[in-house]
Amino acid sequence: MKKQQGFTLIELMIVVAVIGVLSAIAIPQYQKYVAKAEVASVLSTMTGIKTNLEAFIVENGRFPKGEAGEMPVDLGAPEVMPLGKFSLKPGTKDAGTLNLEFGKTNVNALLQGSNLTLAREAKTGTWTCTSADIEKALLPKGCTSTLIAS
């Protein structure tokens, strides 16, 4: 009788194939998970800025114009946001948008160059979360997207 000395080549190839299949499934899912976490982080920061915007509107009777003294940094946005850059766009008297444009570096590839926007309606004072270029599966509940998931 011959004594078995180790694994056969076919057994090793099967193990490598199984690992390859598992990683082909797991890596894209992990990338989506990281992108969702980055979007949630940005939305959390934007919610804090939104509170300061409401206070500004109450005190001044208008939406900030994004000029000196009314920039996102002046209203509580972090000076350095590794994920992107904040901007304000005034609309009518007490309406406008707070936008974050994701950068090209230090950001998940699924989000690079995309935008997340909080818009304030004038009549009701309600805020809506939208994005035209982030797939819906990556956005938190309550945010809408016109991009069809890939």
TrEMBL record:
UniProt key word Transmembrane helix: yes
Alphabetized PANTHER family for the sequence: GENERAL SECRETION PATHWAY PROTEIN G (PTHR30093), PREPILIN PEPTIDASE-DEPENDENT PROTEIN D (PTHR30093:SF34)
Residue intervals passing through the bilayer: 6-27
SUPFAM superfamilies registered for this protein in UniProt: Pili subunits
Entry similarity comment: Belongs to the N-Me-Phe pilin family.
Organism name: Photobacterium iliopiscarium
Protein name: Prepilin-type cleavage/methylation domain-containing protein
Keywords: Fimbrium, Membrane, Methylation, Transmembrane, Transmembrane helix
Matching Pfam families: N_methyl, Pilin
UniProt subunit comment: The pili are polar flexible filaments of about 5.4 nanometers diameter and 2.5 micrometers average length; they consist of only a single polypeptide chain arranged in a helical configuration of five subunits per turn in the assembled pilus.
Recorded superkingdom: Bacteria
